[in-house]
Amino acid sequence: MKYIVIALTVMLLVSCTSTSDFPTIDDPNVELTSIQKQYADELANIHIGDYIDYVAKQFPEMVVASDNMKNTIYEFTYQQQYLLAANNNDETKTYTQTLRFYFINQKLAHWKVK
């Protein structure tokens, strides 16, 4: 039993330190997938005037960023991990993009990437 616990611990540590699954890039803004491209189908299904409930079905992970009775802002975050080519160590970095959905009276007024 003791050896199984040790083996599992070693496997866990090795899997946590492995970074080979992440791309090595020079510029995350250019080389990683944009949030618009990753969620193109979902964005194509929403339109100005759609209700919050409908947009939430397309982006179930979105959260309220601001709410003041009439105007509401929801956010959806997309993260990608990568290795920076110029960095000599294997430290992973995280590239975060956020979609913001702006609603007036519970209807979508516009959205943008932040």
- Helix-strand sequence: HEHHHHEEEE
Strand content: 35-45%
- Biggest sheet features: 5 strands, mixed
Instruction: Tell me what the CATH architecture is.
Output: 2-Layer Sandwich
Inertia-based shape: elongated
What percent of the residues sit in helical stretches (DSSP H or I)? 25-40%
Low-confidence stretches: none
What is the radius of gyration computed over CA atoms, rounded to a whole number of angstroms? 20 Å
CATH secondary-structure class: Alpha Beta
Q: Structural class, please? A: alpha+beta
Mean pLDDT: 82
Distance between the termini: 50 Å
Counted beta strands: 5
CATH topological fold name: Beta-lactamase Inhibitory Protein, Chain:B, domain 1
Number of helices: 5
Keywords: Lipoprotein, Signal
Protein name: Putative lipoprotein
Organism: Colwellia psychrerythraea (strain 34H / ATCC BAA-681) (Vibrio psychroerythus)
Signal peptide: 1-20
Describe the structure.
The protein is an alpha+beta fold and 114 residues long. It has a single domain, classed as Beta-lactamase Inhibitory Protein, Chain:B, domain 1 (2-Layer Sandwich). It is built from five helices and five strands. A hairpin with a 2-residue loop joins strand 2 and strand 3. This is Putative lipoprotein.
Kindly summarize this structure in a few lines.
Residues 1-20 form the signal peptide. The protein has 114 residues and is an alpha+beta fold. The chain has five helices and five strands, in the order αβααααββββ.
